[in-house]
Design brief:
By secondary structure, the chain is of the alpha+beta class. The protein has one domain: Mannose-Binding Protein A, Chain A, CATH 3.10.100.10. The chain is built from 6 helices and 8 strands, in the order H-E-H-E-E-E-H-H-E-H-E-E-H-E. The strands form 2 sheets. Strands 1, 2, 5, 6, 7 and 8 form a 6-stranded mixed sheet that branches. A two-stranded antiparallel ribbon has the order 3-4. The protein starts with a helix and ends with a strand.
Length: 227
């Protein structure tokens, strides 16, 4: 009798799980790709010829993904210059949700991506070493790998907004590969440098390709689909 009671109890405990498994459709298609880390830079460091060039780089690489028909934007902020206002990265990437090329959710919306409220910040987004995949579905080399390429260009503060000070944080809005400039970068693997921010870990030491390599970068970008 005791054995039958235990078996019955186990069946009751497992029934919700079984129901959930039955409800899941293994044939359901994955959501189209709407986020990736670029697998390569352009070879010019942080010089993309401006935002339009960075967006074009994302769009070109997205052509081989399930999100090929979408409009892609580089996650980059610009600083006010030459009479033009600053642009915030968070304002140019759409509303979400965003998924990597394997269908894993990165964030539900802009607030979730940036942790805009205390509750959302505690929850955290799902951008990590395991989910920040390239457009090919490959892992990006991070801290501990050779070479380390975990610096991702963003030009942004942790909230996804542009810097308002006079210091160059965007390599002159992504138009120079000079050694005397700098761009803010994030760490996709959330490690290194005493700062685990995915979008605002530290500034680069120059804007050229070799400059970015020295601090753990390769001129890579976060790309988001806006639709």
């Amino acid at each position: 009798m005791q054995k039958k009671t235990i078996i019955a109890a186990l069946c009751l405990l497992m029934s919700p799980l079984a129901g959930a498994q039955q409800a899941a459709d293994p044939n359901k298609p994955l959501p189209p790709a709407s986020f990736f880390v670029t697998s390569v830079g352009t070879g010019k460091g942080a010089d993309f010829g401006g935002l339009a060039g960075a967006d074009a780089h994302c769009q070109k690489l997205a052509a081989g993904t399930t999100g090929a028909g979408k409009t892609w934007r580089a996650y980059l902020s610009t600083q006010a210059a030459n009479g033009q206002p600053a642009i915030n990265a968070r304002d140019r990437i759409g509303n979400g949700p965003w998924h990597n090329v394997k269908g894993q959710e990165i964030a539900k919306d802009v607030a979730h991506l940036h942790g805009d409220s205390l509750d959302v910040a505690r929850l955290g987004n799902n951008l990590s070493r395991r989910t920040a995949l390239t457009e090919k579905g490959d892992f990006v080399k991070g801290s501990g790998d050779t070479p380390n390429e975990h610096d991702i260009l963003t030009g942004s503060q942790p909230d996804g907004r542009a810097f308002a000070d006079a210091a160059d944080r965007t390599c002159r809005n992504y138009t120079t590969a000079a050694e005397d400039g700098a761009a803010q970068v994030g760490h996709f693997d959330r490690t290194g440098g005493g700062n685990v921010s995915w979008n605002s870990a530290h500034a680069s030491r120059g804007c050229g390709h070799d400059n970015l390599v020295k601090t753990g970068g390769a001129g890579l970008l976060y790309c988001f689909a806006v639709n």
